[in-house]
Design brief:
transcription; extended; single chain; mainly alpha; Arc Repressor Mutant, subunit A; 8 helices; 3-stranded antiparallel β-sheet; 66% helix
Protein backbone atom coordinates (compact mmCIF):
# COMPACT_ATOMS: atom_id res chain seq x y z
CA UNK A 1 0.00 0.00 0.00
CA UNK A 2 2.88 2.35 0.71
CA UNK A 3 4.38 1.68 -2.72
CA UNK A 4 0.98 2.16 -4.39
CA UNK A 5 0.76 5.50 -2.58
CA UNK A 6 4.27 6.44 -3.73
CA UNK A 7 3.43 5.50 -7.30
CA UNK A 8 0.22 7.51 -7.14
CA UNK A 9 2.22 10.50 -5.92
CA UNK A 10 4.54 10.14 -8.92
CA UNK A 11 1.50 10.20 -11.23
CA UNK A 12 0.00 13.29 -9.63
CA UNK A 13 -2.48 11.44 -7.40
CA UNK A 14 -2.66 12.34 -3.72
CA UNK A 15 -0.69 9.74 -1.73
CA UNK A 16 -3.57 9.15 0.72
CA UNK A 17 -6.00 8.55 -2.14
CA UNK A 18 -3.64 5.99 -3.67
CA UNK A 19 -3.03 4.23 -0.35
CA UNK A 20 -6.75 4.00 0.39
CA UNK A 21 -7.34 2.66 -3.09
CA UNK A 22 -4.67 0.01 -2.55
CA UNK A 23 -6.21 -1.00 0.78
CA UNK A 24 -9.70 -1.31 -0.74
CA UNK A 25 -8.31 -3.14 -3.77
CA UNK A 26 -6.54 -5.70 -1.58
CA UNK A 27 -9.35 -6.07 0.95
CA UNK A 28 -11.54 -9.16 0.70
CA UNK A 29 -14.49 -7.29 2.25
CA UNK A 30 -15.95 -3.78 2.13
CA UNK A 31 -14.43 -1.38 4.66
CA UNK A 32 -15.83 1.60 6.55
CA UNK A 33 -14.04 4.93 6.69
CA UNK A 34 -13.21 4.15 10.32
CA UNK A 35 -11.64 0.81 9.30
CA UNK A 36 -9.56 2.60 6.68
CA UNK A 37 -8.44 5.34 9.08
CA UNK A 38 -7.41 2.75 11.68
CA UNK A 39 -5.55 0.47 9.26
CA UNK A 40 -3.64 3.28 7.56
CA UNK A 41 -3.19 5.56 10.58
CA UNK A 42 -4.87 8.48 8.80
CA UNK A 43 -7.13 11.22 10.07
CA UNK A 44 -10.81 10.49 9.49
CA UNK A 45 -11.20 13.78 7.58
CA UNK A 46 -8.36 12.80 5.23
CA UNK A 47 -10.02 9.43 4.63
CA UNK A 48 -13.37 11.09 3.90
CA UNK A 49 -11.83 13.50 1.39
CA UNK A 50 -9.85 10.72 -0.25
CA UNK A 51 -12.91 8.48 -0.51
CA UNK A 52 -14.81 11.33 -2.17
CA UNK A 53 -12.06 11.55 -4.77
CA UNK A 54 -12.07 7.79 -5.38
CA UNK A 55 -15.85 7.91 -5.78
CA UNK A 56 -15.51 10.76 -8.30
CA UNK A 57 -13.00 8.73 -10.31
CA UNK A 58 -15.38 5.73 -10.08
CA UNK A 59 -12.55 3.64 -8.67
CA UNK A 60 -14.51 2.91 -5.49
CA UNK A 61 -18.13 2.91 -4.44
CA UNK A 62 -20.39 2.54 -1.43
CA UNK A 63 -21.87 -0.87 -0.74
CA UNK A 64 -24.54 -1.82 1.79
CA UNK A 65 -23.68 -4.28 4.54
CA UNK A 66 -26.61 -6.07 6.16
CA UNK A 67 -27.08 -5.00 9.79
CA UNK A 68 -24.71 -2.03 9.59
CA UNK A 69 -25.94 1.47 8.78
CA UNK A 70 -22.45 2.89 8.20
CA UNK A 71 -21.13 3.43 4.69
CA UNK A 72 -18.84 0.67 3.47
CA UNK A 73 -16.55 0.97 0.48
CA UNK A 74 -14.97 -1.34 -2.02
CA UNK A 75 -12.71 -0.74 -5.00
CA UNK A 76 -12.83 -1.72 -8.63
CA UNK A 77 -10.83 -4.95 -8.88
CA UNK A 78 -10.78 -5.36 -12.66
CA UNK A 79 -7.41 -3.91 -13.68
CA UNK A 80 -8.57 -3.03 -17.19
CA UNK A 81 -11.60 -1.21 -15.83
CA UNK A 82 -9.32 0.66 -13.43
CA UNK A 83 -6.95 1.64 -16.24
CA UNK A 84 -9.86 2.69 -18.47
CA UNK A 85 -11.44 4.81 -15.73
CA UNK A 86 -8.14 6.50 -14.91
CA UNK A 87 -7.43 7.14 -18.60
CA UNK A 88 -10.93 8.56 -19.09
CA UNK A 89 -10.61 10.79 -16.03
CA UNK A 90 -7.19 12.06 -17.07
CA UNK A 91 -8.41 12.67 -20.60
CA UNK A 92 -11.37 14.70 -19.33
CA UNK A 93 -9.23 16.72 -16.90
CA UNK A 94 -6.07 17.19 -18.97
CA UNK A 95 -6.44 16.38 -22.66
CA UNK A 96 -9.95 17.71 -23.40
CA UNK A 97 -9.17 21.26 -22.15
CA UNK A 98 -5.98 21.24 -24.25
CA UNK A 99 -7.93 20.13 -27.35
CA UNK A 100 -10.49 22.89 -26.74
CA UNK A 101 -7.75 25.50 -26.32
CA UNK A 102 -5.99 24.42 -29.51
CA UNK A 103 -9.28 24.47 -31.43
CA UNK A 104 -9.96 27.97 -30.14
CA UNK A 105 -6.46 29.05 -31.20
CA UNK A 106 -7.00 27.49 -34.63
CA UNK A 107 -10.02 29.75 -35.11
CA UNK A 108 -7.56 32.65 -35.19
CA UNK A 109 -4.73 30.90 -37.02
CA UNK A 110 -5.34 32.87 -40.21
CA UNK A 111 -4.70 36.17 -38.43
CA UNK A 112 -1.92 37.90 -40.43
CA UNK A 113 -0.26 38.98 -37.17
CA UNK A 114 0.59 35.32 -36.48
CA UNK A 115 3.89 34.33 -38.02
CA UNK A 116 3.99 31.40 -40.47
CA UNK A 117 6.19 29.43 -38.03
CA UNK A 118 3.67 29.83 -35.18
CA UNK A 119 0.80 29.02 -37.54
CA UNK A 120 2.60 25.81 -38.59
CA UNK A 121 3.18 24.85 -34.95
CA UNK A 122 -0.50 25.40 -34.17
CA UNK A 123 -1.47 23.19 -37.11
CA UNK A 124 1.00 20.53 -35.96
CA UNK A 125 -0.38 20.62 -32.40
CA UNK A 126 -3.93 20.46 -33.73
CA UNK A 127 -3.14 17.47 -35.95
CA UNK A 128 -1.26 15.70 -33.16
CA UNK A 129 -4.03 16.19 -30.58
CA UNK A 130 -6.71 15.06 -33.06
CA UNK A 131 -4.67 11.95 -33.85
CA UNK A 132 -4.19 11.14 -30.15
CA UNK A 133 -7.87 11.77 -29.42
CA UNK A 134 -8.89 9.53 -32.35
CA UNK A 135 -6.52 6.79 -31.21
CA UNK A 136 -7.91 6.98 -27.68
CA UNK A 137 -11.48 6.57 -28.97
CA UNK A 138 -10.42 3.57 -31.07
CA UNK A 139 -8.67 1.93 -28.11
CA UNK A 140 -11.88 2.06 -26.06
CA UNK A 141 -13.36 -0.48 -28.47
CA UNK A 142 -10.43 -2.89 -28.47
CA UNK A 143 -10.96 -5.88 -26.16
CA UNK A 144 -8.47 -6.02 -23.26
CA UNK A 145 -7.08 -9.38 -24.41
CA UNK A 146 -6.09 -7.84 -27.75
CA UNK A 147 -4.48 -4.85 -26.06
CA UNK A 148 -2.46 -7.23 -23.87
CA UNK A 149 -1.34 -9.12 -26.96
CA UNK A 150 -0.23 -5.83 -28.53
CA UNK A 151 1.63 -4.80 -25.37
CA UNK A 152 3.36 -8.19 -25.13
CA UNK A 153 4.50 -7.86 -28.73
CA UNK A 154 6.49 -4.79 -27.70
CA UNK A 155 9.33 -4.01 -30.07
CA UNK A 156 8.04 -6.56 -32.58
CA UNK A 157 5.36 -4.01 -33.51
CA UNK A 158 8.03 -1.42 -34.29
CA UNK A 159 9.82 -4.00 -36.45
CA UNK A 160 6.58 -4.74 -38.27
CA UNK A 161 6.02 -1.04 -38.91
CA UNK A 162 9.55 -0.72 -40.30
CA UNK A 163 8.92 -3.73 -42.54
CA UNK A 164 5.57 -2.37 -43.77
CA UNK A 165 6.96 1.09 -44.49
CA UNK A 166 10.01 -0.31 -46.29
CA UNK A 167 12.12 2.67 -45.19
CA UNK A 168 13.10 1.78 -41.64
CA UNK A 169 9.91 3.34 -40.26
CA UNK A 170 10.52 6.78 -41.76
CA UNK A 171 7.53 6.72 -44.08
CA UNK A 172 4.19 7.44 -42.47
CA UNK A 173 1.92 4.39 -42.42
CA UNK A 174 -1.74 4.94 -43.12
Amino acid sequence: MLRWGDMGGQWGVNRSVAQIHALLFLSDRPLTAEDIADKLGMARSNVSNSLRELLAWKLAWRVPVLGDRRDHYEAETDLWQMATKVAQGRKEREIDPMVAAIRAAMAHADDPRISPAVRQRLHSMHDFMNTVEGWYQQMLNVPPAQIMTLIRMGSKVVGLLKFVSGKGGKKEIE
